[in-house]
């Protein structure tokens, strides 16, 4: 991503919006039921370790992204093979997010509209964003974040009167196993997905600390998901949450201040679309950047349109129904994504540390 630069602040905001993504509506750690809020805390603590590993990899190779680093430490051909695997993973992730957006908007707003219609107009924005580049997306994110914060804070405050602390009890009544399953699910989705930023964060202007960017983004984004999940449990209860696909919009339907304030679920739609727009844009940028690195293209922007349209086409048949989408996210995604979010980055980290140590020894000998 030559000639494109974003500030540390913009990079942090992108991570926050990316993490919120679809998790804000789908809920997180729901296997743990009323202990989902504890599961999210555990997942965030695990994710700190994972993101510190991402930071170390990027700091060892300044100005390089994951695709560059793979070819440096694994050689041209093996590096490209692993790059292709990572590209396919991010492409798949982007398609899943698109489909989630379609299911949500069709259930809540466009009940009688074919899913293709809303997805097509959305993908046009994604194509524009990808062609504009991460620098423009970073600037827009500084505006988007205020929309997200204002909507979130407004809804949370208005829901306080509906909250009941007894819905958190009994704590750990279901045992440790569901809690750990919920934590693992939250760890992989959405926190582990931040591996995609190692594929696009090659040009951050005057970067002082990758740790600050990733960890602050994780803590704020994770904190918002924690607050949303906790609020959902306090208002609806874990039994209700386990029976609905999108608990947060359901919470907002309970807010009704006479004729003055109604239908606040529409504000949730705005917040959701903003976060999903950023998330799918980042995935598309990562895929385009990866393809350009594998095939040696000088620019990635000219392939943004075909990549985005293919992602749209794939998203149409990736799930058969909303039920299958929800089941995949909770029960299959954590195990499917583990290799791409943890194992491959861990191997890269180990090889990068070995190469760095060997280069220091060589310099010392000379």
Automatic annotation (TrEMBL):
The chain crosses the membrane at residues 12-30, 36-57, 77-97, 117-134, 143-163, 183-201, 213-236, 268-288, 300-319, 331-352. It comes from the Bacteria. Pfam families: Spore_permease. Its main location: membrane. The keyword Transmembrane applies. It is a multi-pass membrane protein. GO terms for cellular component: membrane. It is found in: Membrane. InterPro entries: Spore_GerAB. GO terms for biological process: spore germination. Keywords: Germination, Membrane, Transmembrane, Transmembrane helix, Transport. Belongs to the amino acid-polyamine-organocation (APC) superfamily. Spore germination protein (SGP) (TC 2.A.3.9) family. PANTHER family: SPORE GERMINATION PROTEIN A2. This is Endospore germination permease. It comes from Clostridium estertheticum.
């Amino acid at each position: 991503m030559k000639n494109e630069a974003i500030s540390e602040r913009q990079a942090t905001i992108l991570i926050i919006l990316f993490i919120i993504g679809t998790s804000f509506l789908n809920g997180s750690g729901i296997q743990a039921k009323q202990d989902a809020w504890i599961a999210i805390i555990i997942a965030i603590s695990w994710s700190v370790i994972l993101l510190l590993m991402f930071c170390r990899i990027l700091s060892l190779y300044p100005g390089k992204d994951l695709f560059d680093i793979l070819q440096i430490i694994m050689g041209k051909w093996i590096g490209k093979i692993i790059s292709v695997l990572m590209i396919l993973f991010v492409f798949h992730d982007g398609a899943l997010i698109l489909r989630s957006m379609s299911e949500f908007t069709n259930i809540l707003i466009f009940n009688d509209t074919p899913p293709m219609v809303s997805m097509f107009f959305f993908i046009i924005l994604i194509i524009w964003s990808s062609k504009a580049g991460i620098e423009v997306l970073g600037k827009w994110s500084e505006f988007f974040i205020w929309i997200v914060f204002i909507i979130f804070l407004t809804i949370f405050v208005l829901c306080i009167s509906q909250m009941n602390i007894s819905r958190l009890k009994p704590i750990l009544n279901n045992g440790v196993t569901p809690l750990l399953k919920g934590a693992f699910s939250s760890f992989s989705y959405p926190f582990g997905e931040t591996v995609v930023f190692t594929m696009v964060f090659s040009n951050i202007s005057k970067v002082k600390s990758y740790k600050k960017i990733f960890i602050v983004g994780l803590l704020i984004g994770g904190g918002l998901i924690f607050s949303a999940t906790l609020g959902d449990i306090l208002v609806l209860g874990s039994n209700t949450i386990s029976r609905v696909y999108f608990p947060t919009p359901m919470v907002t339907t309970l807010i009704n201040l006479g004729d003055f304030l109604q239908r606040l679920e529409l504000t949730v739609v705005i917040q959701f679309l903003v976060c999903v727009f950023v998330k799918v844009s980042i995935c598309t940028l990562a895929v385009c950047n990866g393809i350009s690195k594998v095939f040696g293209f000088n620019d990635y922007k000219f392939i943004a349109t075909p990549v985005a349209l293919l992602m749209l086409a794939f998203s149409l048949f990736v799930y058969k129904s909303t039920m299958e989408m929800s089941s995949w996210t909770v029960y299959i995604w954590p195990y499917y994504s583990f290799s791409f979010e943890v194992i491959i980055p861990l191997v890269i980290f180990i090889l990068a540390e070995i190469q760095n140590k060997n280069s220091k020894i060589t310099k010392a000998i000379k």
